[in-house]
Amino acid sequence: MGSNEGVNTICPYCGVGCGLTLIAGEEPGDVRLQPWFEAPVNEGSLCIKGGASPQVVDHEERLKEPLIREGDSFREATWEEALERIVTEFERIEQEYEPDAMGFFSSSKVMNEENYLLQKLARRYGTNNVDNCTRMCHASTVYTLRQSLGAGAMTNSMADLEEHGDVYWVQGANPAEQHVIAHSNYFRQATLEGATLIQIDPHANKTTRDADIHLQLKPGTDIPLLNIAIKTILEEELYDQAFIDERTRGFDHLEATLADFDMEAAADICGLPLEDIQEAARIYAEADNAAIFTGMGMSQHHCGVDNVQNEVNLALITGNLGRPGTGVNPLRGQNNVQGTCDVGAMPNVLPGYQNVDDAEARASVEDVWGFEVPPEPGLTNVEISNAIGEQIHGLFVMGENPVMSEPDALEVEARMADLEFLAVQDIFMTETAEFADVILPATSWAERGGTVTNTDRRVQLMRPVTDVPGNTRHDLDILCELGTRLFGDGFDFDGPEAVFEELREVCPIYHGMTYDRIGFEGVQWPCYEEGDQGDQYLYAEQFDTDDGLGVIRGVRHQEPAEVEDDEFPLVLTTARLEEHYNTGTMSTRSPTLSRKTPENFVDVHPADAAARGIEDGEYVVLRSRRGEIVLEANVTEDIKEGVVWTTPHFADARANTLTNDVLDPLAKIPEYKAAAAEVEPVSESPASADD
Ligand SMILES: Nc1nc2c(c(=O)[nH]1)N[C@H]1C(S)=C(S)[C@@H](COP(=O)(O)OP(=O)(O)OC[C@H]3O[C@@H](n4cnc5c(=O)[nH]c(N)nc54)[C@H](O)[C@@H]3O)O[C@H]1N2
Ligand SMILES: Nc1nc2c(c(=O)[nH]1)N[C@H]1C(S)=C(S)[C@@H](COP(=O)(O)OP(=O)(O)OC[C@H]3O[C@@H](n4cnc5c(=O)[nH]c(N)nc54)[C@H](O)[C@@H]3O)O[C@H]1N2
Ligand code: SF4
Ligand SMILES: [Mo]
Question: What is the dihedral of CA 504, 510, 516, 521, to 10 degrees?
Fold first, then answer.
């Protein structure tokens, strides 16, 4: 494939799903990039990550050969040896324990077809213990949106929100840096043309530059803030009575929950003037079309489900759903996190969000698959990690890096070391792969094809542009080979399109799609029949709940699971940088992306810094009950007083050494966004004296 023909494909980083054109050079892996001006989402624009994306393709540290552990290091192995080792261990674990002793991590960095095959493989093996990074990401959002509205996805889409939205209520999300092109090409355009942006975030960032109002709340106080907004709307009769009567249920419960709610006291909890929150609420309620954007600042709390429910409450009482320019919109994270969930790589649902404990749904899938699916939901990924040494003895990780990404990372490391068998399939040696028994080298996004689904529910085709390096194999081919070796049949596919054809059969929302139809434009789901065009926005007539009504449910403030005390008097929250990506496996290897911020840092408010004798730019120790890291202090008013803010991107100063692994009881998402912490100059830390 060494021709100079450009190939249109999709950016491998975030869920916006920007298209770009890749051109293969003379050498394998040598790839250049050109704008794809007709790309449906971005019309040629790219952010710094998209622009630098070819830099990881021919990176010298790409995994090129299968590796097998020998003592404390690894030796190169043949594919035959590596795959046989996995088959032997899978069979041993099944015989010695049961299929539920294995866990499978699927990947939002790989194609729909590949995730479909991994969840099929897990279920054929006999377990529903299969999950993906959504669990750490928008699990609570997906849970609430499914329960209260119907589907776990954005209710509206980017172009629709730009065209029709008058007010954007952006809570716990930073689209200007995390969904750059969605912001620059859509939302920012709308603000320039008069739309009002209200931002609710403890940290000022690039989104703040376009915000008309920034409510800099204390982390973990989003429920009281929204309750103030809702109570103001109720008291001032700014709600939409007709919409509440015709399209919702539960309004009484909300009224009762807020009957004795004290707005002054709640504003104190948020650390904000009451009047500022009320003013924002009036602007939202009085808009023709107001849209909510919700991100990790809402979902990653032990009350993540309730956080998002309160956003749904706000939207439902004001009738801001089921119309253009409105809705509750989670901008999805990874390039294929929407698709990974759509195709059933989750412990509780089959492809197309059909519940695994619903016998009828199981039967419809079993008809096509020809084997029985276990009827009980499995464990989520953080539960799988927590059960290592007890229920779980073996783990297969495709394209995730839990040693970096899961909370309370030192514990995660200890448990990984306790596994009887760990196989990792990745493009780079990761912190997790260091613990593996077998490492399988996968091809990268530029070397293979398949479909990915963006945050607009748009299914798009990725296309290969360059040759396969070294002895790597496509994720799809590895899974087909492994499935065939394990089970004999059901995994013999001639490329991604053949897998997609089977996926359509079992996934109703994708049923009307074919590779031909997807073409260069993509197709949005729901797409039940071949003629369906998909929807720009959902719920025009009714919600997708049992009775067609949207569910209102009042919620009350819950403090973060860990609150400040004398020893740990600050609140730690963690979030992202524009130029880095998740656990840093790709972005820290990209010269362009690591230039601006080569290492981790912590934002400290000037008053907190002064109280501790911390100077801007000096190294400090950041501690929580679970661990400590040494990193540079960035003294800045961007962060609220009493709060410290750092990033999860860097292995050398790993934020997740500090975070709390408490979970939302329903969505099982960890509380990455609030833990008690302390920061001090390096010299004052007894533990770092030996460094
Ligand atoms: N550049 C870049 N882009 C990315 C990624 C990346 O790593 N880098 N990752 C992708 C992925 S996987 C995801 S999920 C998305 C995530 O995109 P976002 O949802 O924007 O995620 P974060 O940056 O983690 O957090 C968003 C904001 O929440 C704020 N916050 C922290 N605590 C609280 C709180 O208690 N309440 C409120 N209201 N806000 C709070 C933070 O200060 C931050 O500004 O981005 C995707 N895009
Ligand atoms: N403290 C803190 N922790 C967090 C968060 C936070 O806000 N704060 N955010 C959470 C969120 S939202 C998320 S989504 C998770 C992300 O957590 P993870 O999913 O564990 O992290 P990633 O870095 O996205 O890992 C993706 C892996 O896929 C590999 N990869 C890339 N392309 C391919 C491919 O084609 N094939 C294969 N097989 N592998 C490939 C990459 O090298 C990388 O190792 O982190 C969570 N952790
Ligand atoms: S916005 Fe997201 S999809 Fe678009 S170029 Fe940037 S990282 Fe890639
Ligand atoms: Mo994410």
Answer: -160
Q: Is 109 in the pocket of ligand 1 (CB under 6 A)?
A: no
- CB burial string 524-544: b at 16+ within 10 A, e below: bbbbeeeebebbbbbbeeebe
Ligand 3 midpoint to CA 15 (Å): 7
Ligand 1 centroid vs 248 CA: distance in angstroms? 30
Expressed in angstroms and rounded, the spacing between residue 14 Cα and the centre of ligand 4 is 9
pTM: 0.96
CA–CA separation, 292 and 290 (whole Å): 7
**CA 349 to mean position of chain CA atoms:** 17
pLDDT score for 690: 42
- Residue ranges of the alpha helices (H) in 448-546? 475-487, 496-506, 515-518
User: What pLDDT score was predicted for residue 2?
Assistant: 39
- Model pLDDT for residues 306-337, shown as the tens digit of each residue: 999 999 999 999 999 999 999 999 999 999 99
Which amino acid is located at 475 in the chain? D
Instruction: Give the number of the atom of ligand 3 that is nearest the alpha carbon of residue 179.
Output: 1
170 lines ligand 1 (CB under 6 A): no
CATH 3.40.50.740, applies to 67-135+342-350+360-524: yes
CB atoms within 10 A of CB 632: 15
Distance 331 CA to ligand 1 centre (A): 10
Name the fold adopted by 155-330.
Dimethylsulfoxide Reductase; domain 2 (3.40.228)
Out of 123-127, 524-528, 668-672, least confident range: 524-528
User: What is the spatial distance between Cα 54 and Cα 689, in angstroms, rounded to a whole number?
Assistant: 42
* Binding site membership of 63 for ligand 1 (Cβ less than 6 Å): no
Q: What is the DSSP string of 359-414?
A: HHHHHHHHHHH-SPPPSS----HHHHHHTBTTTB-EEEEES--HHHHSSSHHHHHH
Nearest-ligand number for the alpha carbon of 214: 1
User: Which H helix or E strand runs over 34?
Assistant: strand 31-35
When pLDDT is cut at 50, 70 and 90, the band that residue 442 belongs to is very high
Q: Taking the domain 570-689, which CATH number applies?
A: 2.40.40.20
Residue 598, classified by CB atoms within 10 Å of its CB into exposed (0-12), middle (13-18) or buried (19+), is: exposed
The pLDDT tens digits of the residues spanning 240-263 come to 999 999 999 999 999 999 999 999
C-beta of residue 149 within 8 angstroms of C-beta of residue 539: yes
Measured CA to CA, the distance from residue 312 to residue 321 in angstroms comes to: 9
Domain ranges for the chain, please list them: 7-56, 67-135+342-350+360-524, 155-330, 570-689
Ion ligand 4: residues, CB within 5 A, are 137, 333
| Residue 156, amino acid | N
